[in-house]
């Protein structure tokens, strides 16, 4: 085998018969003839995909050694090194296994003889001297490891021992001794003087089940409450009084709390260490150590606790039996070097494995149906599993190979840093939810009995295959990799149909595949070819019946595969598939959310060179972009949208499309794959903020003095209330009751020197400006008596939102209640400028010098400050300077979350400055986005029914968002005249350019809440939802460009909407022609059979005309359009619309009563020429007014008055309409554009200059909505 392996590199040109006999693990069961492709094991539904029990001899007194964690194992770089390591003498191997840390359980394999592959294929060196040197180095290393182990076992307490009692004296809270379970206990709790528990008792076993507060000092009351609850559950679990299912739930809840809250991790370890020390019950102690073993692989102790925790473990190594194995496990895993902690609490399978001192055996599937089972450590990531699989398969290179998880909802790549135990826990969680849903109430006892610790494979499994194809056109020299690539190629051709394979090529490939599976063809073996779907893609196999394909496959086998060796057949198969341009391209089915003529359903291909847009029918590549042409990619955080922005200098056929938006459920998978090929496009992964440059100490001092100077300016301005508290009130209000030594130590660690904060300026000490846990007794600024009470209520609400209630008690609030609290504070402060200044002073105070910058209390205060900065800024100049100085000082912190919030708030201040004042408090959507340091998310709809998800800043105006939408849909930057409308039911309103969209969303929320609160539940109410609509607003000649395909498509759909809404006077003949043109666009050429056109007419005609259209006339016109493309039909459709001179006008329904000569109901058309009054639903214009003849216009709620004529003779027109303000705004916008200097240059025949001053003709109509600038007489 050794010579055979060395000669395989030359086997790609020649075909030795016995070359590739041992290449992959054998199938998990003998395959029937013929071996079916991609056949799963016969017991796939019952065979466990991962197991919790390792086989061992139950008669042994002491359990076997535990596996070594992956970070302490040395990975082999090549099979040669591994084979050399195996050549060491058995005595050295036995010495290596003397310590429990050095052994690993043997791997399981479903194949036969798989354990000897690496030894058989290894390269054995013949040089004796090299072997002796290697043997000497290994023996020396083993001797050093033995010495270290002996030192740990003999002298565990004399080598840098750190007693947990020292940690307790420095960081523990003082607990009051209180008897439990009696009435006396309740009475004694109310007494003022209670005995303190000495620290040596707080690190030893506690017989009770409750503690008054957390062991470690915490600043978040919510964490304290959870810590007390954890200790209660821990005591209940260690006593063993509950069922096994409840034990599992308690273990998962405790470890889950540590995963979700980093502040609780040390508290969990301390509680477990306490209950494991001097515990009189062996069973109780084993339960505690089981929890510690599960916790240590889920998260690590902090740097402060680590040395005490390690000393605690070394001290307990003196235990015997199972406890010693538990301690050794914790000691081996207490220095995990992984980047992140676990994301899920342990599954029942992991808990069962740890109870038996074992690991989980996971089964990995290959694309040819074979499997491999290996042991997985709790800290093994997907990258570690790839290394282990490559080691067992003797795969030389793992470049591009990855692990996928196959679920019922699809296949997903497991990222390299994901823990496999987390994936298993997620599977189990979903499976339990599914089982709970299915067996809801019928037979609950049966569902409880069916729970076990071993999950069957079911629909979840791990798959090993290649993900990255960097050199996709090269045949690998590794025979193992050739086998894996061949199986993946067969899967892509037959099952996925990823390549445009013709029938002839498919038969050639099928013949080679038959040669690999069946060997040389034999007589009377046609039944071997019965499974046609395993050899041909469904697109080709469906052409004929299975009986027809069987002899054809047999002939293809004889013609293309006979006489070829297995390795040659595989290489030929790969060589043929590699000729396709799509080989090595990962394909994702997406929906294009844009405007073009290729259809919206397509395939997005990702390969090592760039991106492809592929037609799904024939795999035709429409567009191809290299990564150098891609500017950025963006994954929508709130919707299934993926945005790809191209460089602006590209000059290919797709230059009109600079932004592609795709809708797909696999957006994260696509983004991750693109970044794997091109790391430069990873901007969507990194947090949306510029890299923080560490500041120097001089900068910190300068920023600190800026804050001090701003405080003194505020004091000198005489706008602050002088504090009445004593200088020591800061410690009293901020910190818990501690000894003098602890107070000084905490102050020095978290706050700074005493001299710095002891400075008092004009009676204002440091406590006035710093964080306070208690409600303030007076407002910070000088307010009236009534406003001061509101200010105190505002501060109380801030404490509630942060999690601090009265007297520091925690107040748990749901998300909606949090939003209500924030809106309450914001609404009160926005009513009055003095209260707004007071709010900023309170928030700056609560975010200053917090003892724990990363605590949830501090981060909630910062979230509220960031939200306030994004909504409205303080009107007082000194407070605004103080705010900016405070943010700059805190933004220099590049480590904590506080610094991130400070930088985000600083951006919000810069965006909010100079913008229009907000009218409404923030909406729920805005609050939830901003407090998470995200932009606001909203959907913007289009006239064709599609929508795009857009993110924008809370201070963004309608003009800003229009530019974002234009870039999103690929509309050119010079396109003008577009606007955003707010739509409710049948009414719509265009937003003014300077109007903030966040204000509009807040107004919508108020409207919905008001209707919900006052609605009568007895009557059904038709609910209308507000939406944003993007469409053309001003139809001027210089704003129209039908050569732009995007604008042409937008105008086409806007015209269709106007026709459906009956805003276009259509005759019967025009209705027939429009329907036929629309049928040509939607249906294509007319067939011989007469179609039903009512559905088509509903898309382009008002409902009153649909029933009157004769179907035969439409069919006749449709037949005359045969051969016309969709683009030509749309152009003819728009040309027909242009036959009406007012086709660009905006139509409003109005009523008039000033003359009896006209009908009462009219149409008011507004366009670039002026105003036009028409008969309703008619082209007959009654009168027209140019903008120069309009002197003024005054809108009211349901009325619009227009004064026309000249200064000498005037006429008044009064129209009744609910859209009076919309008409007035449209008139103002048209006149502003037409009277601009650019418009003057484009107008022809503009003879003579206009008079200036009040006596001359006005340059624009006068309106209460637009006041003209005062005329300035030029003096000579």
UniProtKB/TrEMBL annotation:
Domain FERM: 360-689, 936-1238
Residue numbers spanned by region Disordered: 1-132, 1238-1276
Keyword Cytoplasm: yes
CDD domains reported in the protein's UniProt record: FERM_B-lobe, FERM_C2_myosin_like, FERM_F1_DdMyo7_like
Every MyTH4 domain range: 206-355, 771-931
Family: Belongs to the TRAFAC class myosin-kinesin ATPase superfamily. Myosin family.
Protein name (Swiss-Prot/TrEMBL): Pleckstrin y domain-containing family H member 1
Originating organism: Melanaphis sacchari
Gene that encodes the chain: Plekhh1
């Amino acid at each position: 085998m050794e010579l055979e392996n060395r000669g395989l590199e030359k086997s790609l040109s020649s075909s030795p018969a016995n070359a590739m006999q041992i290449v992959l693990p054998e199938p998990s069961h003998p395959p029937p003839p013929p071996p079916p492709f991609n056949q799963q094991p016969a017991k796939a539904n019952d065979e466990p995909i991962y197991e919790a029990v390792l086989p061992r001899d139950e008669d042994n007194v002491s359990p076997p050694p535990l596996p070594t964690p992956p970070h302490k194992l040395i990975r082999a770089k090549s099979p040669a090194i591994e084979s050399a390591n195996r050549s060491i003498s058995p005595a050295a191997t036995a010495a290596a296994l003397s310590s429990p840390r050095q052994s690993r359980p043997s791997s399981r394999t479903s194949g036969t003889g798989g354990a000897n592959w690496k030894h058989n294929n290894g390269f054995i060196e013949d040089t004796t001297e090299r072997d002796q040197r290697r043997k000497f180095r290994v023996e020396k290393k083993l001797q050093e490891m033995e010495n270290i182990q002996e030192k740990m076992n003999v002298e565990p307490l004399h080598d840098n021992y750190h007693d947990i009692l020292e940690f307790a004296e420095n960081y523990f809270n003082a607990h009051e001794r209180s008897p439990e379970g009696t009435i006396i206990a309740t009475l004694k709790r109310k007494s003022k003087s209670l005995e303190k528990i000495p620290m040596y008792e707080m690190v030893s076993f506690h017989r009770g089940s409750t503690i008054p507060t957390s062991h470690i000092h915490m600043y978040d009351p919510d964490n304290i409450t959870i810590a007390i609850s954890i200790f209660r559950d821990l005591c209940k679990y260690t006593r063993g009084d509950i069922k096994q299912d409840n034990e599992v739930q308690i273990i998962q809840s405790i470890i889950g709390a540590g995963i979700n809250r980093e502040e609780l991790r040390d508290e969990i370890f301390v509680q477990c260490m306490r209950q494991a020390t001097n515990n009189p019950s062996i069973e109780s102690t084993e339960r505690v150590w089981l929890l510690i073993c599960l916790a240590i692989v889920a998260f690590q102790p902090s740097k402060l606790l680590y040395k005490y925790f390690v000393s605690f473990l070394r001290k307990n190594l003196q235990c015997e039996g199972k406890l010693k194995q538990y301690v050794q496990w914790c000691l081996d895993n207490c220095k995990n070097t992984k980047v992140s902690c676990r994301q899920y609490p342990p599954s029942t399978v992991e808990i069962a494995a740890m109870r038996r001192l074992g690991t989980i055996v996971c089964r990995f599937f290959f694309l040819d149906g074979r499997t491999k089972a290996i042991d997985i450590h709790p800290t093994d990531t997907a990258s570690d599993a790839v290394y282990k699989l490559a080691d067992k398969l003797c795969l030389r290179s793992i470049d591009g190979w990855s692990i996928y998880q196959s679920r019922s909802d699809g296949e997903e790549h497991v990222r390299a840093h994901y823990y496999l135990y987390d994936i298993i826990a997620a599977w189990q969680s979903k499976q339990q939810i599914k089982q709970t849903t299915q067996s809801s109430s019928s037979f609950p006892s049966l569902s409880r009995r069916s729970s076990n610790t071993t999950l069957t494979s079911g629909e979840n499994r791990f798959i090993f295959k290649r993900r990255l194809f960097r050199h996709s056109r090269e045949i690998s020299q590794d025979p193992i990799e050739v086998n894996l690539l061949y199986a993946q190629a067969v899967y892509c051709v037959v099952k996925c149909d990823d390549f445009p394979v013709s029938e002839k090529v498919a038969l050639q490939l099928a013949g080679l595949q038959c040669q690999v599976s069946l060997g040389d063809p034999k007589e009377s073996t046609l039944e071997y070819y019965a499974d046609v779907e395993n050899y041909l893609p469904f697109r080709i196999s469906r052409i004929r019946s299975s009986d027809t394909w069987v002899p054809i496959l047999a002939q293809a086998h004889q013609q293309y595969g006979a006489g070829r060796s297995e390795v040659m057949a595989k290489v030929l198969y790969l060589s043929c598939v590699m000729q396709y341009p799509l080989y090595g391209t990962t394909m994702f089915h997406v929906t294009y959310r844009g405007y073009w003529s290729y259809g919206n359903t397509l395939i997005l291909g990702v390969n090592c060179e760039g991106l492809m847009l592929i037609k799904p029918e024939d795999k035709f590549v429409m567009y191809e972009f290299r990564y150098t042409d891609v500017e950025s990619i963006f994954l929508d955080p709130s919707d299934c949208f993926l945005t790809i922005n191209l460089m602006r200098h590209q000059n290919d056929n797709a230059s009109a499309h600079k932004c592609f938006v795709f809708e797909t459920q696999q957006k994260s998978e696509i983004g991750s794959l693109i970044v794997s090929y091109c790391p430069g496009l990873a901007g969507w992964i990194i947090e949306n903020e510029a890299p923080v440059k560490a500041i120097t100490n001089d900068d910190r001092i300068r920023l600190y003095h800026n804050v001090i100077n701003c405080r003194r300016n505020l004091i000198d301005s005489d706008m602050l209330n002088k504090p009445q508290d004593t200088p020591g009130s800061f410690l009293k209000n901020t910190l818990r009751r501690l000894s003098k030594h602890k107070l000084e130590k905490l102050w020095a660690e978290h706050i700074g020197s005493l001299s710095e904060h002891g400075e008092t300026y004009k009676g204002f000490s440091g406590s006035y400006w710093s964080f306070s846990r208690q409600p303030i007794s007076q407002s910070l600024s000088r307010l009236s008596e009534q406003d001061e009470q509101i200010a105190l209520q505002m501060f109380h609400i801030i404490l509630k939102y942060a999690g601090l209630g009265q007297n520091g008690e925690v107040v748990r609030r749901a998300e909606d209640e949090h939003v209500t609290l924030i809106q309450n504070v914001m609404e009160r402060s926005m009513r009055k400028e003095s209260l707004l200044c007071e709010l900023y002073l309170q928030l700056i105070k609560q975010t200053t010098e917090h003892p724990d910058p990363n605590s949830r209390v501090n981060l909630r205060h910062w979230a509220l400050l960031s939200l306030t900065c994004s909504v409205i800024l303080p009107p007082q100049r000194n407070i605004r300077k103080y705010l900016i100085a405070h943010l700059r000082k805190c933004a220099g912190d590049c480590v904590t979350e506080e610094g991130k919030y400070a930088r985000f708030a600083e951006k919000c201040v810069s965006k909010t400055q100079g913008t229009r004042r907000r009218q409404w408090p923030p909406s729920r959507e805005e609050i939830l986005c901003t407090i998470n340091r995200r932009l606001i998310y909203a959907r913007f709809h289009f006239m064709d029914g599609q929508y795009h998800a857009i993110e924008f800043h809370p201070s963004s105006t309608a003009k800003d968002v229009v530019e974002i939408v234009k870039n999103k849909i690929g509309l050119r930057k010079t396109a003008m005249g577009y606007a955003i409308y707010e739509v409710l039911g049948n009414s719509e309103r265009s937003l003014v350019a300077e109007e903030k969209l966040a204000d509009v969303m807040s107004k919508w929320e108020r409207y919905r809440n008001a209707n919900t609160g006052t609605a009568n539940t007895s009557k059904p109410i038709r609910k209308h939802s507000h939406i944003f609509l993007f469409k053309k607003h001003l139809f001027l000649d210089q704003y129209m460009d039908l050569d732009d395909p995007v604008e042409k498509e937008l105008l086409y759909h806007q015209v269709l909407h106007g026709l459906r809404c009956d805003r276009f006077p259509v005759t019967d003949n025009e209705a027939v022609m429009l329907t036929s043109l629309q049928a040509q666009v939607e249906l294509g050429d007319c067939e011989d059979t007469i179609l039903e056109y009512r559905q088509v007419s509903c898309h382009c005609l008002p409902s009153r005309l649909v029933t009157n259209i004769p179907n035969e006339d439409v069919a006749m016109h449709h037949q005359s359009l045969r051969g016309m493309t969709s683009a030509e039909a749309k152009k003819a459709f728009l040309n027909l619309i242009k036959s009406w001179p007012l086709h660009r006008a905006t139509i409003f329904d109005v009523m008039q009563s000033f003359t009896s000569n006209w009908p009462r109901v009219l149409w008011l058309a507004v366009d670039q020429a002026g105003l036009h009054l028409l008969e309703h639903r008619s082209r007959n214009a009654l009168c027209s007014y140019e903008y120069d003849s309009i002197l003024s216009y005054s809108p009211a709620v349901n009325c619009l008055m227009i004064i026309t004529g000249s200064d000498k003779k005037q006429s008044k027109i009064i129209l009744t309409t609910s859209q009076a303000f919309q008409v007035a705004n449209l008139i103002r916008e048209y006149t502003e554009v037409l009277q601009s200097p650019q418009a003057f240059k484009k107008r022809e025949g503009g003879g003579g200059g206009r008079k200036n001053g009040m006596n001359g003709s006005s340059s624009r109509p006068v309106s209460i909505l637009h006041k003209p600038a005062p005329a300035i007489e030029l003096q000579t």
